[in-house]
Amino acid sequence: MKQSFSLPHFANEELDQLKIGGKTFSSRLMVGTGKYKNLKDAIESIDASCADIVTVAIRRAQNTKNLGRSNLIDGLDWSKLWILPNTAGCESAEEAVRIASLGREIVKKLGQFDNNFIKLEVIPDSRYLLPDPIGTLKAAEYLVNKNFVVMPYIGADPVLAKQLENIGCATVMPLASPIGSGQGLKNLLNLEIIIENAKIPVIIDAGIGTPSEANKVMEMGAAAVLVNTAIARAKNSPTMARAMSLAVESGRLTYMAGRMPINERAEPSSPMLGISK
User: Fold this and answer.
1) The model's pTM
2) How far apart are the first and last CA of the chain?
3) Is 165 helix (H, G, I), strand (E, B) or coil?
4) What is the pLDDT of residue 29?
5) Catalytic residue positions?
C-alpha cells in the first residue's frame, strides 16, 4: 500500500502533483525494469518504490513471443501503473522512431489506449552510452508531430534541453552521470542550469547511486528522478526502492518549503533580549 506524508496546512499535495502530457501522477520517482536479480525482486521493488510510472524497453518487450507472457510485463498490474515505453538500444533517429511506434501499439494491447508516452533514447556510443544530441533532436521533432508525448534522454546540455522544449517535448531527462555507473551527480552545474531555464518538467535520469543524490536534485527543483540500477543492483532492492521513494518525497518538500539562507556568521537560535547578565 502506498504511503505518503501529508502537510495539509502547509503544502497541498494535490496541487503539487506531477503533470506530464495531460496526465497527473502522485509519485515523483520513476523506476526501470532491468537488471533485477529475479522476477520476485523486481515486482517487490517496484511496489516498494510507490512509483506511478515504470519504464520498459520496447526491444525487450518485442522479443517476447506472446505479449502478456513476458515475466515482468505479465507480473505488473498495469491498471495501477503507467507504462513508459523506451527506445533503449536504438542507435539512430530512424530506428528510434520505428521502435517508438511499436511501443505505442504494445501499450494499447496492455489496455492503456490513451498512452502516447515515449522515453526517447538514441545511443550510438556503446562504451559510455552517451545519447546522440543530433539524432535525439531529429527523432523528437518527428515524434512530437506524430502526437507522441516525448520524454527525451539527453546529456546534461542546457542548450539542447531548451531546443527540445521549444519543439514541444513534454519533459527533458538529462543524465547525472553515465547510465548504470552509479557515479552520482557529476553534471551538477549543468543540471542546475537546465532546471533554472526549463518551463517543462526536468527529470534526472541515469547515474544516481544513492537516495541522498536523488534527494539533492529534488531539492534543486527537479520535477522527478528515474532510477533503475541503483535499486536493481542494491543488496536489498525493495529496501533501496523504499529509501529512494522517501528521499524523493523529502527533497520535493524541501524545495517547496524553501531552505534557510546561508549565513557567514553564527546566529543564536534563542534571542538574547531580556536575558540578565
Assistant:
1) 0.89
2) 56
3) helix
4) 97
5) 119
